[in-house]
């Protein structure tokens, strides 16, 4: 997954558990547990409007066990009572993010006992914190087998039903698929989740550079538009669709596939930063210095990307991530 800047005066304190309107655009933001995102709290408390905050407080380890990410080991934005109170004070809704690699997800989802234990822990967390719900950020989609995917859907069904029984919600994250060729890379099919107890489906419409190499944007506009159209054709309720967008940048040797992700604040220190120009195909800014290409997201990039997504009829956007990046103006 992939941050913010301009400040609007005045903090907004909103009680958790409020319903999110489907008649206006709603902004979600992920909160990465540690560095380089430790400025996240300063950002979400500066007055900017973020309806949904999504801190990562849990991960699944390689033995398939759900582990809580505490501040002492995972970093500044990880689980603590203080962080929970802050997140709830500055958002209408809160989803705790649970991360997992393909291999750790496979071990968890294949075990009835491990699924049950994970669900028990997550339900306990929701009851204790009164967060709105859980977000499953289980990635490495290209490495999933048929069995992995079937077991994942079983876990989604079990967790969703458990959450719905206590009036909580489930959000799941899926891969960027813009056409049948990209669909062939994945076992995942968006239409499979229409009948499962899922409130929101996040389409992570970024990371294009990993497939096409350094020198390409993080999220080209035509690709994002095709992703939206592809998903709209398969998810019956458009109000369940959340489009994930990047606020992060990256750099690397031009033409290579060795990529270093950057926050905007990190990018400012790189040679040639002041020479960045906008790429009209993505609204992102880029520059080259010697044999290295750099990409960044500015407030202008984010504003234009948001307008593109709104024009497609989407009401929910999730930004990866808070802490060191630009934000909407």
UniProtKB/TrEMBL annotation:
Source organism, top-level taxon: Bacteria
Name any one Pfam family assigned in the record: Glyco_hydro_18
List, alphabetically, the PROSITE patterns matched: GH18_2
Enzyme class, broadest EC rank: hydrolase
EC number(s) from the headed UniProt entry: 3.2.-.-
- Pinpoint the GH18 domain residues: 34-329
Q: Which residues form a coiled coil?
A: none
Q: Does the keyword Hydrolase apply?
A: yes
Q: Which InterPro entries match?
A: Chitinase_II/V-like_cat, GH, Glyco_hydro18_cat
UniProt keyword list: Glycosidase, Hydrolase
Any one biological process term the GO annotation gives: carbohydrate metabolic process
Gene Ontology MF term list: chitin binding; hydrolase activity, acting on glycosyl bonds
On whether Ion transport is a keyword of this UniProt record, the answer is: no
SUPFAM superfamilies, alphabetically? Answer: (Trans)glycosidases
**PANTHER family reported in the protein's UniProt record:** CHITINASE DOMAIN-CONTAINING PROTEIN 1 (PTHR46066:SF2), CHITINASE DOMAIN-CONTAINING PROTEIN 1 FAMILY MEMBER (PTHR46066)
UniProt protein name: Sporulation-specific glycosylase ydhD
The organism named in the record is Legionella busanensis
The organism's taxonomy opens as: Bacteria, Pseudomonadati, Pseudomonadota, Gammaproteobacteria, Legionellales
